[in-house]
């Protein structure tokens, strides 16, 4: 376990409300990622971060913003939640290996339901 | 974009070897192939990765063809707890987007 904690683990909210998911790590890794998982789509990258205040978009970033003010925390915000954002959200950290590979370690997931 | 192709599902008898294939014909020259698995709705779990040579760790073996266009993950003695969705993934254009397709649903049967 790489010390990754996601919160909340489950959330039900209404369309139009803001939602923030938190990913917390305890091992000072530089790279952090947010993925969403939907039936038939596998996992899709939303945003990632390569350091404090350094973030970039993934393939499904519309409707999401992120922030990383501290190494240990990577926040995913839905400014105005829509039903299409009902999903399971996974945070991951990236660990470089001696050979130059980048191994991801995932959190337990946050299940979000937007009514 | 580098993508992978895997069978949708496979069955394996408990105690036998499970061989999961993956095609990644567009993989870039210096990109690794990574394998993960996901049990029920848990977060994906890293299994193994490789570049050109075959690799083995305590969980599995990875066989990569010489032309690097395909690979096979081998679970030498599958158990019921190995029932999961297995993902073969590569990065896109050396970036940070690790593309997870639908994967292979492996069912280990008693």
Q: Can you walk me through this structure?
A:
The complex is a heterodimer of chains A (115) and B (110). Chain A is built from no helices and 11 strands. Chain A is an all-beta fold. In chain A, 33% of the residues are buried. Chain B is built from no helices and 10 strands. The mean pLDDT of chain B is 91. The interface between A and B is medium-sized, with 30 and 21 residues.
Quick structural summary:
The complex is a heterodimer of chains A (115) and B (110). Chain A has 115 residues and is mainly β. Chain A is built from no helices and eleven strands.
Structural class of chain B: mainly beta
Residues in helix, % of chain B: under 10%
* Separation, N- and C-terminal Cα atoms of chain B: 39 Å
Calculate the mean pLDDT score of chain B and round it. 91
Which properties best describe this structure?
heterodimer, A: 115 residues, mainly beta, seven-stranded mixed beta sheet, four-stranded antiparallel beta sheet, 11 strands, 0% helix, B: 110 residues, six-stranded mixed beta sheet, 10 strands, globular
Secondary structure: elements and pairs:
The complex is a heterodimer of chains A (115) and B (110).
Chain A: E1 4-7, E2 10-13, E3 19-25, E4 31-38, E5 42-51, E6 54-57, E7 65-70, E8 73-78, E9 87-96, E10 102-106, E11 110-114
Parallel strand pairs in A: 2-11
Antiparallel strand pairs in A: 1-3, 3-8, 4-5, 4-9, 5-6, 7-8, 9-10, 9-11
Chain B: E1 9-13, E2 18-23, E3 33-38, E4 45-50, E5 55-56, E6 61-64, E7 70-75, E8 84-91, E9 98-99, E10 104-109
Parallel strand pairs in B: 1-10
Antiparallel strand pairs in B: 2-7, 3-4, 3-8, 5-6, 6-7, 8-9, 8-10
